[in-house]
Amino acid sequence: MAAITLKDINKQYGDGFHAVKDVSLDIADGEFVILVGPSGCGKSTLLRMIVGLEDITSGEMLIGGQRVNEKAPRDRNLSMVFQNYALYPHLTVFENIAFPLRLSKTSAKEVDERVRHAAELLELTEHLDRKPANLSGGQRQRVAMGRAIVREAQAFLFDEPLSNLDAKLRGQMRTEISRLQKRLGITTVYVTHDQVEAMTLGDRVVVLRRGVVQQVATPRELYENPVNLFVAGFIGSPPMNFISATVVDGRLHTPFGEWTLPESRATGLPGREVVLIGARPEAFEDASVVSDTIREHGVVFDANIDVIEWLGNEQYAYVPYEAPEDIRAQLAELERELDSEAMRTQLVVSLDATSRIPEGTTASLWLDLRKVHVFDPASGENLTVKAVRGAATDGAGYDGGAGSDGDGAPAAPQTPRSSASGDDGLPAAPTSGED
Amino acid sequence: MDEGQLSRGTKAWWWVAGVVVIVYALFPVAWIVSLSFKTASDLGTGQFLPTTWVWDNYDNILRGDAQDLFLSSLRNSIGISLIATFISVVLATFAAYAIARLDFPGKRLILTTALAVAIFPVISIVTPLFNLWRNIGLYDTWPGLIIPYLSLTLPISIWTLSAFFRQIPWELEQAAQVDGATTWQAFRKVIVPLATPGVFTTAIISFFIAWNDFVYGISLTSTDAARPVPAALAFFTGASQFEEPTGPIAAAAVVVTIPVVVLVLLFQRRIVSGLTQGAVKG
């Protein structure tokens, strides 16, 4: 077990492609850190640099306080689970798991003991004599994890381990990985493009875009206070809505009427002409079901709802609207970066399941203005968060390890993820210039 | 392998087609076997089965007049083919591994050259080789045959093996390295076991090529010192000069076919592809 420190890590390929740019990151001992971002953001490259399968162009990598830049993968004592499992097809499950131990010349008795222990942990005991070809996808995945946990590695590295499983199995394995990590308390770096995995597994999440770290924070912090448009659009499903607005005398002129933001949210407005308002789908509600106690915190407006998706516990309403051409182009560009495609500018609104608004009608919606964010359309910066950050940092910083420190100790209670992020939560490499 | 149930009619047609192919391919072999058991007087009858089954021809090549010629050539053939196969498989394994795994300048050149060598007609280089070998003392020696055999076996070995290595997932080697293996250990413990079927297939193909060669065998040898079986068969003589040595030749042909059949049967299970199944998903 060890802490991992990345100092100004860069990766430039032979063809000049700059895959990872100035990434600095402190991963505490026992921490579960997620690297997330759309495809091509450099998250896998970063992981492969940690494990040593990719050379580091510049910067320094420390594992357990020791510089490992020049060390071969086998000297770093890390274990890794590959996206496609990479099991040895000619070996049985037992020998697959035992492989790292055999290489380190562990005694046969100890190999047997530890392999069986790992197999028990992953419920693989009855499959130990089978070959990988005869296993199901989930079983193969567990064998790959068995091979990772069987030796006392300094850290676990996961490279999109669940992307080859079907949705149901993915959910189960996600819980298993989380449970295992807490039980073993080993530093873990986990790469994924799936934001659900990122939000549910990580103590801290690193959002990457084109090789640059956007924000490092707890899942809650990422969701509630994204530092820029990219993070805001990437985290959350359905994604945050962006509405263009012009500022006139401190008031917002939007396609849905004139809004006045509460003081806490309006700090970024003075001196600007155009801003983007970001609002999560759940910040909206059917005006008719909003209780009177909170109604005054928001604004009510009429919107033309063309499609409704009813999901049982909630429903999503889609509200198409016209946006200025340049804002439209910018949002489309953002969507492309997030691996999706914007067909049209629309609001996705989450409504209470009891709401009976019919499709294809104009309805009265309510937006909680306490929950909106104001973005600078040019730099993408979240002006609201910036203002809050500038004022004060609240609470204690991030508290290190999430799991217990004893191997095989009873499962430690889950560390609450609500712990507010202090300085640790600030982006390691801000995208926008200082102003 | 089952592609769903074939209809009854289609199945019957496949059977008929299969039988036709088998008869077409195996009839000459059966004919040779039958010839090898015939007496000299029986050879011309045109009858498929011998009227009397005799071991005379085998006796002739293994213990009788043709013994010297046949046994020494058999020894030469086995030795030369095995050595040529071994060298070419070892060299081709390293070459193919490099071609499949590494990016180096001249990679395409190697593959193209190998292909060019493979399609180059043997007969056109035999005469210069004959002169060269006589001058440098390789004529009528084992190395004198092994070297040209390598030119036949190496290209095909490199091509088959590099295709085979490309199928082995790269991640396996990386996984091994992360698990604590050196590059050599990763190669030996992960890549070699997976490549074994490919190596065996290649070895068998190489062996057959060397074993079946006639042109080099007859041109570059003159005595028992290095003459391989296919060439030696041409030197068989009948009991008198008016008699064709058909019987002994047939017997010798059967004898030299046996190692080939044995090899294939022996390594049949090794030559199963798809061993890499289960290594990675999809």
UniProtKB/TrEMBL annotation, chain A:
GO BP annotations listed: carbohydrate transport
Transmembrane segments: none
SMART domains attached to this UniProt entry: AAA
GO MF annotation terms: ABC-type transporter activity; ATP binding; ATP hydrolysis activity
Cleaved signal peptide residues: none
A UniProt-annotated Pfam family: OB_MalK
SUPFAM superfamilies in alphabetical order: MOP-like, P-loop containing nucleoside triphosphate hydrolases
This protein's UniProt keywords: ATP-binding, Cell membrane, Membrane, Nucleotide-binding, Translocase, Transport
Source organism, top-level taxon: Bacteria
GO cellular component, one term: ATP-binding cassette (ABC) transporter complex, substrate-binding subunit-containing
Disordered: annotated segments: 394-435
Biased composition (Gly residues): 397-406
The ABC transporter domain, residue ranges: 4-235
Nucleotide-binding is among the record's keywords: yes
Classification via Gene3D superfamilies: 2.40.50.100, Nucleic acid-binding proteins, P-loop containing nucleotide triphosphate hydrolases
Protein name, entry field: sn-glycerol-3-phosphate ABC transporter ATP-binding protein UgpC
Gene name of the record: ugpC
UniProtKB/TrEMBL annotation, chain B:
Annotated compartments: Cell membrane
Pfam families listed in its UniProt record: BPD_transp_1
Annotated Gene Ontology cellular component terms: plasma membrane
GO process terms (BP): transmembrane transport
Domain ABC transmembrane type-1, first and last residues per copy: 74-267
Membrane-crossing residue ranges in chain numbering: 12-33, 78-97, 109-133, 145-165, 190-211, 249-267
Entry-linked PROSITE patterns: ABC_TM1
DNA damage among keywords: no
Topology with respect to the bilayer: Multi-pass membrane protein
Entry keywords, A to Z: Cell membrane, Membrane, Transmembrane, Transmembrane helix, Transport
Principal location listed in the UniProt entry: membrane
Domain of life: Bacteria
Family: Belongs to the binding-protein-dependent transport system permease family.
Name by which UniProt lists this protein: Carbohydrate ABC transporter permease
Origin species: Jiangella asiatica
